[in-house]
Amino acid sequence: MAKSEPKHWSLLNSAVHASCRIFNVMRQTFRHPKTEKESDFFVIHTSNWANICALTPDREVVMVRQYRFGVQELVWEFPGGIIDPGEDPVEAAVRELREETGFEGEHARVMATVWPNPALFNNICTLVRVDNAAMRHDLNWDEHEEIEVGTFSIDTLKGWAHSGEFKHSIALNQLYFLEESLKDEPVS
Asked: What DSSP assignment string belongs to 25-82?
């Protein structure tokens, strides 16, 4: 059976359908290059995000748990948030770690960049890692944030992933890239 490569559609029109506090829902008209069929699609335009994996000196991972309105559940995830205009993604991740948890670490660096959901969102999320994280600051939560902070072993997080308790897709990506980044490091 011959496989055909999907085609790249042409964007004909883009207009704000709904403007929300942190994103715009865009109604975008695309045309298929072969069939020339035109269709409307809705895409969420939002700022890029940065998430951070902070490892303590004991190799515990700093996590946050907060209520997520989309799934109406309390969810464990890596600290993170929106990158401010003109802000470096690594600096944004470090800032989010400090604000949400009070932790600060050393050697901040990018592990990967991912598309959170390319079917619906236009943004990227930068996954950052820091080492030797310790509590050094007061918390500085946003208006609607109420956060539980915890530290967990990587094995605990992997267990949550395998049992289905850990379902946040970006957090699962971050756990994968954390494990990859640790492969070449000596165990102490």
From this structure: EEEEEEE-TTT--EEEEEEEEE--EEEEEEB-TTSEEEEEEEEETTTTEEEEE--EEE
Rounded-to-integer distance, Cα 178 and Cα 153, Å: 12
Residue 107 to residue 87: CA distance in whole angstroms: 18
SS3 string, 84-133, reads CCCCCHHHHHHHHHHHHHCEEEEEEEEEEEECCCCCCECCCEEEEEEEEE
Closest CA to 174 of 98, 45, 79, 73: 79
SS3 156: helix
- In tens, the pLDDT along 67-120 reads 888 899 999 999 999 999 999 999 999 999 999 999 999 999 999 999 999 999
* CATH number listed for the domain at residues 49-182: 3.90.79.10
For the chain, which residues make up each domain, given as ranges?
10-46, 49-182
